[in-house]
Amino acid sequence: MAGGDDDYVYDEVTGEWRPAAELATAVQGASEVRDASGNVLKDGDSVTLIKDLKVKGANQTLKQGTVIRSIRLTDNPEEIDCRHDTIKGLVLRTEFVRKR
After folding, report:
1. Tens-place pLDDT, residues 16-41
2. From CA 28, how far away is CA 26, in angstroms rounded?
3. Angle at CA 68, nearest 5°, toward 63 and 70?
4. Can you give the pTM of this predicted structure?
5. What mean pLDDT, rounded, does the chain reach?
């Protein structure tokens, strides 16, 4: 056999055997967290709300244009963890925010 240390992994999505390095690159790209405009979000970024949001468990509405600072990414690429002056432990959906 030809000498090479390429490992192949079966990709259940495509039904093909693909090089492991290729799949690792694809997974890294898929784990990017993006805002409503498609901008990549990172820990510590500031975001702006693009819609008025009623906060469950608090008798409060966060208005469109509210700036949220120092976000933290979660395991779910559709949610970010953040803190507002009056609300601690706030989790927002990325579809309602835009990077500043």
Report:
1. 787 877 666 555 555 789 999 999 99
2. 5
3. 170
4. 0.67
5. 84
